[in-house]
């Protein structure tokens, strides 16, 4: 079986050991019970691929869990959530093996975020969509922004700023008027959130080989927090962000409905 990934022809494997996981929502659990009877499933740590039932949030949670247990396998999502940008349409329990055999695989790289708090604690986590630095109180955040060791912005006054991957560029980044990035671009979006000074700065597009460092100015008076997907760290004084290509993740989509197709289509939606 052949498929096309990021412009290169690859051989699609025949998956025999499949894991089935579902969000705790009632709809997802009903679908889980139906699919559970359709074949023999294995645990996630023994699987060659995973069928994930739920929404985008649960898919991100599952991908993070794979990284935590150091067993990353292709994930095929079935949408029973809200948006389902990372998912496929849910259909009956029949034909899941055939859908997997014909699916397109898309590879995405997460971000590595390291945060240092005012109390000198260090937290290092990954983000698949984006890393967001946000003000904690009513006072505007003031941030110094450096790229590859060079200060590019001595003081950015804003509600926050985020770094988005191509996979996450259509999420929070797009809502903050950031650019949509093709999956094959190897770029990151650096997007301000309600910038006050400089007022007209609209962000930057950077190669994903660059490291971006944010330093919170007046971090006690103007406390900031950082959110990496679903992980939050408060009272930070410094945040480092860089792509993490050593931990690439694979999403599977029905033919003609891939994440790359959806990201491209988003650019023409009005």
Describe the structure in brief.
With 270 residues, this protein is α+β, with helices and mostly antiparallel strands.
Key terms:
270 residues; disordered N terminus; alpha+beta; 6-stranded mixed sheet; 5 helices; Tumour Suppressor Smad4; 2 domains; Rossmann fold; 11-stranded antiparallel sheet
CATH topology of the largest domain: Tumour Suppressor Smad4
Structural class based on helices, strands and sheet pairing:
alpha+beta
Gyration radius over CA: 20 Å
CATH class of the largest domain: Mainly Beta
- The CATH superfamily of the largest domain appears as Probable inorganic polyphosphate/atp-NAD kinase, domain 2
Name the beta content range. 35-45%
CATH architecture of the largest domain: Sandwich
The total beta strand count reads 19
Mean pLDDT value: 90
Question: Helix share of residues?
Answer: 10-25%
Encode the helix/strand succession as letters.
Answer: EEEHEHEEHEEEEEEHEEEEEEEH
- Given the structure, what is the number of helices? 5
How would you describe the shape?
elongated
As residue ranges, the low-confidence spans are 1-12
Let me know the largest β-sheet. 11 strands, antiparallel
